[in-house]
Amino acid sequence: MAGIRLHVIAPLVLMAVGKCARDASVYVRKCAANALPKLYDLRLEEHNSAIEEIVGILLNDHSPGVLGAAAAAFASICPNNFSLIGQNYQRLCEILLDVEEWGQIILIGILLRFVIAKHGLVRESIMFSLCCTESSNSEKDGSTTEISIKEDPGFLCGGNNFGLDVDVSGDNDLLASMVSRCYIERPDEYLSRSSYTNRGPELNVAQFTSGKSNNDVKILLQCTSPLLWSNNSAVVLAAGGVHWIMAPREDLKRIVKPLLFVLRSSSASKYVVLCNIQVFAKAMPSLFAPHFEDFFICSSDSYQIKALKLEILSSIATDSSISFIFKEFQDYVRDPDRRFAADTVAAIGLCAQRLPKTANTCLQGLLALTRLEFLSSDIGSVEGEAGVLIQAIMSIRSIIKQDPPSHEKVIIQLIRSLDSIKVPAARAMIIWIAGEYCSLGDTIPRMLTTVLSYLAWHFTTEALETKLQILNSMVKVLLCAEGEDLWSFKRVLNYVLELAECDLNYDVRDRARFLKKILSSNLNPQGLEEEANVSPQHKELSHVLAEHIFGGQTKPVSPEPMNCRFYLPGSLSQIVLHAAPGYEPLPKPCSLLHDDIDLSNACQGTNALESAKNSDFYDTDDHGSLSGSLDEESTSDYSRQDSITKSSVSSGGDGTGSANDDDDSVDLLIQISDVGNACENQNGFSHSGSADLRELISKRGLESWLNDQPGLSSASTSEPSEVSISTARISMGDIGRRVKTKSYTLLDPANGNGLKVDYTFSSEVSTISHHLVCVEVFIKNCSSEAMSDIFLQDDESSKGSYSADQTIVATDR
Amino acid sequence: MPPLMAIEFLCRVADVLSDYLGGLNEDVIKDNFIIVYELLDEMIDNGFPLTTEPNILREMIAQPNIVSKVLSVVTGNSSNVSETRPGATASCVPWRTTDPKYANNEVYVDLVEEMDATINRDGVLVKCEIYGEVQVNSHLSGLPDLTLSFANTSILDDVRFHPCVRFRPWESNQILSFVPPDGQFKLMSYRVKKLKSTPIYVKPQLTSGGGTCRVDVLVGIRNDPGKTIDSITVQFQLPHCILSADMTSNHGTVNILANKTCLWSIGRIPKDKAPSMSGTLVLETGLERLHVFPTFQVAFRVMGVALSGLQIDKLDLKNLPNRPYKGFRALTRAGEFEVRS
């Protein structure tokens, strides 16, 4: 009956379900539990508390069959209402084994959340490394972030430029800490972190608990470990996830074999499991290192699975296993699937970077490969072969990059083979290598004259890519050259530039003219005295400019696209690599209210409670912030007025959460009902940091807004000046958090109009905030009536280390 | 919902459907639309799996047979959902039909093993492991309690169990203790790793040059498992760049299928000679030689022996009125057995 989605009969159904929940028959109770989510879907607010109560009753049940369904209901109705779990935690753990498999999956997730919310993370687990690295690395981390942003624009992924491109050889602890942090953060918080280098939620040691001393953790681990033997791969993965997060490091071995065993099921689940193993293996390679054989590729695997296995293999390779792995790789290179062969070559490069000892072997192999491949690419010109060749040279280049002086011979060999390699991209890359390391060692500079004249000779027949690269490399060589070589280089370059200026392709022509202008002083064949006249500054400039241009050239398509974000193991988001709708990260550690927890935790607790209250808000809201388009149309049936007050409540709560030591904000908490006042208060508070013209405008704008309160209809006419400015600029740190409250489309159910808020990160650099982030917020009133009490509010960091300024202008149409 | 849960559920649906309908393809589903609908209705509710145990489903929804078809045509009542509420949902063993009755009690235990092996270009065995299942077919009355023990559990690398298996006895002394569902089910699957040898060898040899490629494949017995190895087939994908292939063998038949797969069915290996296949592939014009070589997939079957060496020690039954008949069988077949060339 609950399947009839009619609002009218909902109260009747609710009553029936309530009765059935106390029925004597297990089957009836189970069906009652199943009916609850359907009832809840009707979104009749007044019933929510009753529904939650029934969930509580059902969770108290003794039959495992009922508990499975009740867990499912709990997860979809009130996933944050941990008090319901708290009463039955121990019993739920004990009965977990007998619950049917589908219920087990859900129940494991709930119990995990509960334990984390109650006790925090476990000190012995891999997640704890977060805490250790946190303090020591925070400085270092900030700097690496900067660097990576600068040198690697390829990694920016939708603006989330957190420096996650940790070198593969690198700091696994750091990666693990990233992983754990990502598990806990909401997607919007993640967004916020990318905007400034300061870390998001500070997790202090108090939020960790010892797995050995804590009973709850111990029980959970104990009860989930037999589930690793389950026949259902989803159960295995869920149990594995619990162990991954909670278990002490030395016990993690336990999850390895079951996970690998699950690989023997259908190919779809194989892919899912491999995706998860990949994350595990990256964070803790030692775990899977002895089992490298399981990731050997089978010809019946699909390409995606092969690629994943390769990636895992290259991340778990150790000095002892590398020889076996290379043997396998040699076979893979001859695989009929050339795309896969190219990937293998890339993987060899990665292995060599991770294990510098093997670099020489790798290079020899790769060089042999290039020689082999161009034999075939000469005549065959098969698509895939070119890919393999390019990838091989790319790998060689990345290996050389690590330690150029020791690989001088390789460079020479590559340059020698230039004549026989025909693939333009590969040629371009070799030329790049020649240009980049032109001053390395003794032999290379001597070769260069010949090489350059050879290149000049062939210039007209080259492909576009190669032509551009020749130009660049020549300039590079020129800039490094000294003595008599300089003259010959200049002649060659002049010749090439002239050729290029008459080229058919406008890119080449442009490049040639540009280089000529920059290097006009250097190029002048007249003589040295003139060159001396050129101010060193200018020379420096040209140098810098040139270097800059070359830095960005032929960036390799990252062979291993680094996922910038990790999600909970087993979740859908982990597979698709973005937060899927409905994705819920782990709750904040220790967010359950306890008397003995310090102030900041308490504040977090209130936050959590707040969020529990407004959970429907977050539900609908999450979609928006995930997909990045924030002008979503929420389908909730709240009246506009209602939701506005609600949002102000939650924002007030947030304010206290972050600025917990400020009297102002405490005031705020108290004065929640008085929206206008609170808002102004907050405003004044946030603006106190800086005195600025813009700020003045904003204040004026805001105040006129606020004073306007019920004068509604006149609002649009009375503020033409505001309309003319029409952009709101907010520099803020914690964008994500604010986005939550700002992004509402508050629908008036009667006519489908509402308040629409849009925001964009503008490319301008803000002059006010030293975080230099500029956000434009557009507020639009779609309804026929004017709205009041709209305010934007900034989340001050507790230290007040930066000032946030707002200029609020809204258009009211 | 975790994606694996969805995948796992779909697999379960497929299993149940093919169990009910004796196969799974478009036509079968069209013909038995009502049954499929009823099954799905029972199995999933509001996006959450409801009843997936085949035993209980069978109790609720009768399996299609001629009698019910005739009945439905005559009476016009097309539903075959039973009126009674399934009893087992209330019992403590939710996977078992409440109280089945059999005239003669039987239980069969099968060890079905699949051998995965990879042999690389140099003929070295890179990986060899066995994935095995213990399949039980039980027709026992009442609520029997079974205990199954193995002679050598130490070789098992990893195991997975049917939900009916109790974990504690396994943890303490590696004994499987369970109340079986009715009918055929997979009690346990296991894995044995790092085996040293394969029962047969396959030696491919490819030489390429001058626009053609010469293929020679030799097959023979390496370690005699004691039983005959039969239904041996060797299969490989011909490269894309060949124009024609001409393959002959001295034993068995060679077929080139439509999707450029060459299938050589050998059957049993004769005593007096080693089967071999040879032939030439003509490459596309302009291609001097072949530089990627195919991988050979080998299939075989050995009846009556479990190659992993796992042995069932004994099977005890309790709670049974009369002595049941117990049967054991073993079977090994090739899983992903490939030979690279």
UniProtKB/TrEMBL annotation, chain A:
Residues 698-812 form the AP-3 complex subunit beta C-terminal domain. Pfam families: Adaptin_N, AP3B1_C. Residues 614-664 are annotated as: Disordered. It comes from the Eukaryota. Its main location: membrane. Transmembrane segments: none annotated. Residues 636-646 have a biased composition (Polar residues). GO terms for cellular component: endomembrane system; membrane coat. Residues 1-20 form the signal peptide. Keywords: Membrane, Protein transport, Signal, Transport. GO terms for biological process: intracellular protein transport; vesicle-mediated transport. It is found in: Endomembrane system. InterPro entries: AP3B_C, AP_beta, Clathrin/coatomer_adapt-like_N. This is AP-3 complex subunit beta C-terminal domain-containing protein. It comes from Carya illinoinensis (Pecan). The lineage of its organism: Eukaryota, Viridiplantae, Streptophyta, Embryophyta, Tracheophyta.
From TrEMBL, chain B:
One of its GO terms (biological process) is vesicle-mediated transport. Transmembrane segments: none annotated. PROSITE patterns: CLAT_ADAPTOR_M_1, MHD. Gene3D superfamilies: 3.30.450.60, Mu homology domain, subdomain B. The keyword Protein transport applies. Belongs to the adaptor complexes medium subunit family. Its main location: membrane. Pfam families: Adap_comp_sub. CDD domains: AP-3_Mu3_Cterm, AP3_Mu_N. Residues 104-340 form the MHD domain. Keywords: Membrane, Protein transport, Transport. The keyword Membrane applies. It comes from Carya illinoinensis. GO terms for cellular component: clathrin adaptor complex; endomembrane system. InterPro entries: Adaptor_comp_med_subunit (IPR050431), AP2_Mu_C_sf (IPR036168), Clathrin_mu (IPR001392), Clathrin_mu_CS (IPR018240), Longin-like_dom_sf (IPR011012), MHD (IPR028565). This is MHD domain-containing protein. It is found in: Endomembrane system. SUPFAM superfamilies: Second domain of Mu2 adaptin subunit (ap50) of ap2 adaptor, SNARE-like. PANTHER family: AP COMPLEX SUBUNIT MU.
